[in-house]
Amino acid sequence: MSNPCDHSSLPIHKKLLDHLRDALLFVDERGEIVEWNQPAKELLDISVVQPTSIYSYFDFDQLIVDEDVQRLMKVIDGSGRQLSVKVLGLNCNNKKLYCLSLQDSSFYDRIKELRQQIHQFMDSSLEGMVLHDNGIIVECDDTFAEILGYENEELLHKSVFDIVDPQYSRALKEKIDIIPNEPYEIAAVTKSGKRIHLEVMAHPYPYDNKILRGAVIRDITERVENEKRIEFMAYFDELTNLPNRTYFLQELMDVINQAQASGEMFAVYFMDIDYFKQINDTMGYVFGDKLLQSCARRLKYLQNEHTFLARMGGDEFLILQRYVKTKEEAEALAQEIIDQFQEPIHIDDFELFTSVSIGISLYPDDGQDANELIKHADSAMNVIKEHYRNDYKMFESSISKDFKSILTMETELRKALKEGQFELHYQPQKNIVTGRIVGVEALLRWNHPKEGFISPGTFIPLAEKTGLILEIGDWVMYEACRQNKQWQDEGYDPIIVGVNLSAKQFHQSDLVERVASILNKTGLQPSHLELEITESMAMSNEEDIIQTLEGLRDLGVYVSIDDFGTGYSSLKYLSRFPVNKLKIDKVFIQNRKQNEAIVKSIIHMSHSLDMKVIAEGVETEEQLTFLKNERCDEMQGFFYSKPLPPKHLNEMFQKQTV
């Protein structure tokens, strides 16, 4: 021993000390080793050279802070070993001595056992491990330190509350004194200040007369952020960062529950950006997205603690305004919204003026549940959209009745298509010079099983709006071609059948292919089909129209412009279009005296462009004589025949054939 002393000063006889199995050593106030026994030498791995100071092994100053307390202390020899050390202060011969009781308590030996115990509670491989004494870290592994961005030594003796996010301190204090049966989550702050999320599986670690806390720590930051991202996507619109329809519905239902108890009145607004589709189609989807973002920003200016704003989808937005006392108060916010869009919106290098249409429903007068309130606000908005735009409208019960009527008719339309309730009537077209039938115009009729024949003016606009017109239009073209081929197969002279195309049909990118397919299926020659388009359709998008018309011409199908003279045609466009015939609108024929010069001009212009011309709506002999004198090519109208079902035309064809 390098520090011999008077053994009589020890509180225990030297021979007795050497016979004890417990590792003991005595230290004076300065940390100088007074005596130790053989087990202590072996435990501290003392070799030939024997240090005289306890500071060569432990942080003695920390040890004597609390006497008679079992502590896990790291041995200062670079081995990473830990010993359990208990200090007892003694007074011997008026001198202060400290008795240190040492036990082998290597953390890395025990941690394996702890890891196996905790593993059964975890779903995946364990990550960092930490051991703490009432919140003070006494040991941790490399992974735990790495997760938090520290070195192991920096974390020792550090309080876990120093690394936990302050928002979670209270929750951790509640958890730290119990042993949870399942993992719990907390947020922590790394050394660099980054906020991370951890999953903690705590486990007791019995040692001597106390229980230390062991914990397995897993970094779940990525999982938590993904969950938040998924939650955001579930409740927010990614483009505008506004709440979405799901979130709005949830909020609205909560407000309804509160209003039922309090008697509160509130308003729901359904807002739509005017002409958004046209802007999107013209400028592109990227521009359209930027417009939606700009509109969302403007709406946010009106947001306060009593309003809730959401994006319904597309160019539609929903607004909830609480504590509305009067109808006028609800209308005032609608006007504020409209006023927000009076100033132009700047996107890239464009300055764009846009407006909005708004429908309003009030709780409880216009609906008792969320879906009803939104539906009624939507219905009111559609009324504005169809007639005025850049305005608002309160919901009225009559709107709901009209809407139900439309819904009923839409259902009936789908049923009519499925059950074969549609039929075609054909109005003959005569060559004015020869008097022979040279063509027929196919006209759609709806023969409802209960209502009888329903006017096309009633159901065609609805079919256009719902998109059913495409399916109906395909049926009309197929049936007209099939019927014309049947007449030819029955031996009648070949004629041309005219079919009216809707705007939606005409602007289909695959129209030419569709027509070719129908001709192929029915066996009708392309030269016996004429497609009629309106003047406004022909002038809507010059380059695309020319491409479609040239495709039809190459196919061998004729094209005529219907209702000519009612639009704004340009001679330049007409000269470029591969069109075969112009059809003078009946309004010019029936008011001939006022429009005589116009009719003459159309006939002469058609011939100069090498087009035929046909007059519709001819009802008197005087009108026919005028057209004949002006060398109009063809005519149709009640003067010769009204539209007829196929079987009635058979008789006319028979007379003509004979």
UniProtKB/TrEMBL annotation:
Family matches, as InterPro entries: Biofilm_reg_signaling (IPR052155), EAL_dom (IPR001633), EAL_sf (IPR035919), GGDEF_dom (IPR000160), Nucleotide_cyclase (IPR029787), PAS (IPR000014), PAS-like_dom_sf (IPR035965), Rev_trsase/Diguanyl_cyclase (IPR043128)
Coiled coil ranges: none
Domain spans labelled EAL: 406-657
Span of domain PAS: 129-177
SMART domains (UniProt xref): EAL, GGDEF, PAS
SUPFAM superfamilies: EAL domain-like, Nucleotide cyclase, PYP-like sensor domain (PAS domain)
Domain GGDEF, chain residue ranges per copy: 264-397
Domain of life, source organism: Bacteria
Pfam families per the UniProt record, alphabetical: EAL, GGDEF, PAS_8, PAS_9
Name assigned to this protein: Diguanylate cyclase
Species classification: Bacteria, Bacillati, Bacillota, Bacilli, Bacillales
